[in-house]
Request: fold
Amino acid sequence: MLFNISYTTLNFLCFVFVTMLVYFLFPAKKYKWTVLLAASMFFYAVAGYKYAFFILFTTLSTYLIALWISRVSSHSKKLLKEKKKEWDKDQKKKYKNTVKIQKRLIMTLALLINFGILAFLKYYGFFSGSINELLGSFGMSFSMPTLKLFLPLGISFYTFQSMGYIVDVYREKTEAQRNPFKLLLFVSFFPQIIQGPISIYDQLAHQLFEPHEFDFTRMKHGMELILWGFFKKLVIADRAYILIGAVEQDYTKFGGTTLTFTILLYALQLYADFSGGIDISRGVAQIFGIDMIDNFKRPYFSRSINEYWRRWHISLGGWLKNYLFYPVAMSNVFINASKKMKNTRFGRTAAGSHISKVLPTSVASLIVFLVVGIWHGADWKYIAFGVWNGVIIMISILMQPLFDGIIDKLHIKRQNPFFVGFQIFRTLLIVLVGYVFDVAPSFGEGMRTLTLFFTGQDFSAGMAEISKLGLVTADYIILLAGAIVILVASIIQERHLDTDIRTMLDQKPLALRFVLLYLGIMTVIIFGIYGSGYNAADFVYMQF
Amino acid sequence: MRFPKGYAGVNKLFASEIINIFSSVMFFVASVFAVFSSQRIVNPQYLPIIVIPLIAAGLMSVVAFILQLVGLGQAKKDDQMFKTAFAFVFVGVAASVVSFMSGGTLSNIFSSISEVSSLIVSVYTILGIYNFAEKMDNASIMLNAKITIIIGASAFAVAVILRMVPVFFPRTEYMLDLFVSVTELTAYIIFLICLGRARGMLAEKK
Amino acid sequence: MKFQNYVTRTVKTACFFLAVMMSCLLLQQYVLRNVDHNSLRVEGFYQEERDSLDAVFIGASDIYTSFMPGRAYEKYGFTSYLLASESITSEGVITAVKEVVRTQHPSLIIIEANAFLYGDSDNETNEAHVHKFFDNLPFSINKLNYINRKVPVDNKWEYMFPLIKYHGLWTELPDRVNMMQSNFNLDLRGYNYLKGFRTTAKVFKSDTPSLNSQLPYETGELDLDPELQQNLFDLLDYSKENNLNVIFVRAPHYVTKDTYDRVKRSNKMESILEERGFDYYAFENYSELIGIDDSRDFYNEDHMNVYGAIKFTDFLAEGLANDDDLKIGEQSEAQQEMWKEVSATTNRLYRYCDDLMTNGEEKGAQEDVITLDALENYSDAPIER
Reply:
């Protein structure tokens, strides 16, 4: 990085401010999008100019291949129109199939190239390490070379986003973009490049290319969202990470109580960090008149793991559903397997009938979550994380009738607050088990941690350990207060799904708004974790 | 008269400004005499020439302030903008008192608050006049009011920016202060003109 | 209604951001700030009336523990200030000189050589030492130049807005009340009682013998660190370009074999300055002449206590008063009153420290509320030696 321009720095805020001025004062309305493009290029250059080649390559390959697919489509349509009277039904069907295969091959080429680059850069180390370990265990001397690879900034996000676009062009859901610079803007739009959300082309592109005039209310809402993001990130997430980071550095030496506390804190930290970053991204985009997908919808209120993944990292879930889950679940392989099972003796039973019906869905879910695990990182523990979530979802799909039967037999009302509470608590526990693999340095340590949850609790030893992990009483008070603020805001938002808190705030008296926003800003300024910090040890004058 | 309270209020505001001008002149005269006499041997016969204008200036300032308050208090019954101006007069006074009684950075901060309050009082006063003009379909006064606000705010902004110049160019404060004084005086004159014209408009019997 | 809405909305937004800005300024100035004696000293300099100082002393702790401006005024009538900071860097010295030129027109600038005598240039990048001085400077072209040239790009914001660095100090507020109050009082009062002087009431006793007696005969030289030497040259060039009367001094120290290299570097510095036409008075080499008693007049190896400081002040102040370059300016009545109070406070401080040392107590004494409160019981009559 030339200098630090990450989202929670003053540099970034100044950058946004300057971009905003230029954008809204830009005289040629039709070309306002070029300001966003220039800003995105500048951001990428400052944040990671060394990686520029990769994003440009992805954009160029995506652009060319999309045009190619589009040309094949339009050519085939033209030909079909010309030969409408000449060809019979079978000839037309055969031709259409040929075109479909051709387009699919071209699309696959794009996917292979770009996902290949991503897989190589992100997973080669993991793959080669695992292979070498395996070969070593068989006593073989051959080993895969160790390469020093770097990950270009935002590669996961922009690769998924651009490949989604390619698939949409293939499916003829969207027209191929003829202007390569516009496509580059879609791929590299700076508020989303670092951590998403992953946008659908149809949803984002027209907003990027349309000129937007200055709107005070939109600007205000955008800035409020940015403030909320800063609060979650700087006051809560970065503060909690002081303890989590200390535990991660020397994971194996900590006892069960400390690790349990760390996982609980991690639940807060991860949500605050990720959703805070997304809020900042969305807030910045909103200032420019662009609405990006909300990636989080109060995930810890989920009543099932299925629901959790519809509320957590929504854009990734949406992408995987559109481009992986449906193609897999509706593929001939699974449809045929389902039909075959239905025709067996087992398949004719009630349970068998249900299982054969949901088999494609449940297996596809498992595959999707395997990918989710791999997406998170190149380590067996992430695969375990993905498999854990996938298996739970698979079980819940397969056993749904059984669970429904038990609930009905026990005459439990599904909207009963206690039952809802139980469901939320149960879901949270399942999620926390998954988090263990996020925090633990390895799969083995993750399993050990799970054991320690039950067998390794020692409250006083744990308290003694926790007190040395970098946080003081005041920090815990702030974390607790911050968590309560997030909880209250989430409850309010959950109860008013048709609007959002910022619009509700606009209806309140000026004095209240003023005070809340003022307190919000001052809270971030005073209690935020940023800057190089003050270390008393540096300031002791040695000569005295 | 469509806005009798508004007219009475604006009338008093105008009078308040005129008295303020006289007060400033008196104060200037007293200062000149004080400087003049300090350069000669201190002689009791010069004291009345300094003290009398000074007292007169002080009294006129008090009268002007009271007139301003009363004027805003009356005008706010016909338009809400004067209510905000009225409130900010007190904010400005409070800030001035704190600035006077303290020192250093604290004093500077509250002095700035006082100046901003003063600007807001002027802006909301003119906005009130703009509202009157809009209701009376007087496009000329509306334009006048708009220009007054823009020039007033611009003069303030120029003053703020020019105060930062000495950071980069030391010992330029005196020259820049002079320039700022001229721009602020221009803005003030335009403000007075608007106030005067508003009086005339509100005095109309339709 | 569009224009009115636009104006009222602009006013509301501006008021909101002004409120936030003012709050941050207040926090940065009074609450979330690393206030110590350096802050009080440097800030006090900027409170001095423009062009009211006859002499300004620049340097590190060596000078602000050795020279008493109040004493100098009382005996010789010239006004002075110690624009000094703990272990100030050589870049800091250059900036200090430029700040003096920007805000005052003293007839003499006296620079204590410490910043140029380190064996290496590590001090130049010592964050704590740099912050102690630069954090307390107001915004000026000189401060901005330093930040632009020398501060790493990721730290620039912290130097411009110290609140970014110190916002976390809210955890230590209860311990900092004394200095916060001192800072606030200084701001309200508008002037510094001791004009930067600070001391510690302690008599240094050491088994390691002092080598001060052999310093007058030491002619050996050691090269200055290249970066520090270059900074010295830049300073000299700047002084010449601006026709400044600059003299360099070296305050007395309790020199031992561990610190002997500094003496040789001081000798080298003397040669350099002589070559370039600047005066350098290495008083360190002539402490006996000044009357410094190694067994009584230091509170540690590098700093004199009040016993030593008063001797050094009398000696140096007399020398400066006899220097043709020192021009004593006219003062207003208010200024004279203030300086009388400064002298009185200095005298009280001397007696207070003397009392502490006689009773075997060790304590720092500076411009803070605790020390100033303690001085009330002491006489302000001139100290007779």
Notes: The longest strand of chain C covers residues 55-59. The two ends of chain C are 80 Å apart (CA to CA). Chain C touches chain A at residues 9, 12, 16, 19-20, 23-24, 27, 32, 34, 36, 61, 86-87, 127-128, 131-132, 153-155, 157-158, 163-172, 200, 300, 302-303, 364 (CB under 8 Å). DSSP finds 16 helices and nine strands in chain C.
